[in-house]
Amino acid sequence: MSQYTLNINGGTQTLNAGPETPLLWILRDSLMLVGSKFGCGIGQCGACTVHLDGMPTRSCITPVSEVAGRQVTTIEGLSENGDHPLQRAWQELDVPQCGYCQAGQIMSAAALLKKSPHPSDSEIDAALDGNLCRCGTYLRIRAGIHRAAE
Ligand code: FES
């Protein structure tokens, strides 16, 4: 076990963990930030997506030892009151079905909008390619991103 000080959602958290402990475990089990979801655990589904220094990152395969000193943003830290344009668009358009993957979808979409404020369909499809939705809400996700970009 080692001690790590993490920058998460604008605050700092100090905790003890093994160096290989996945960031997702820290977020969910130690810090009770449960918006990021465990889907596959092998970096394939995107349900655990957070931002690491602004880049969409799979927290299930990111060891805590790689996170110290960097900025982590989770869905809980994306906006003050859940009022990020994407979160508003998601509500307006009823984007989620079961909702399990949606925090990861929104985090990938938020990173895309920072890079490309008015993305095309193909840019959206490419940026969210690794975020799987078993309910098949892809068309509503795309519409939600366009709404947020208005
Ligand atoms: Fe991390 Fe699936 S749980 S990519």
From TrEMBL:
<dbReference type="InterPro" id="IPR002888">
    <property type="entry name" value="2Fe-2S-bd"/>
</dbReference>
<dbReference type="InterPro" id="IPR051452">
    <property type="entry name" value="Diverse_Oxidoreductases"/>
</dbReference>
<dbReference type="InterPro" id="IPR012675">
    <property type="entry name" value="Beta-grasp_dom_sf"/>
</dbReference>
<keyword id="KW-0408">Iron</keyword>
<keyword id="KW-0411">Iron-sulfur</keyword>
<keyword id="KW-0560">Oxidoreductase</keyword>
<keyword id="KW-0479">Metal-binding</keyword>
<dbReference type="InterPro" id="IPR001041">
    <property type="entry name" value="2Fe-2S_ferredoxin-type"/>
</dbReference>
<feature type="domain" description="2Fe-2S ferredoxin-type">
    <location>
        <begin position="2"/>
        <end position="78"/>
    </location>
</feature>
<dbReference type="Pfam" id="PF01799">
    <property type="entry name" value="Fer2_2"/>
</dbReference>
<protein>
    <submittedName>
        <fullName>(2Fe-2S)-binding protein</fullName>
    </submittedName>
</protein>
<dbReference type="Pfam" id="PF00111">
    <property type="entry name" value="Fer2"/>
</dbReference>
<dbReference type="InterPro" id="IPR036884">
    <property type="entry name" value="2Fe-2S-bd_dom_sf"/>
</dbReference>
<dbReference type="InterPro" id="IPR006058">
    <property type="entry name" value="2Fe2S_fd_BS"/>
</dbReference>
<dbReference type="InterPro" id="IPR036010">
    <property type="entry name" value="2Fe-2S_ferredoxin-like_sf"/>
</dbReference>
<keyword id="KW-0001">2Fe-2S</keyword>
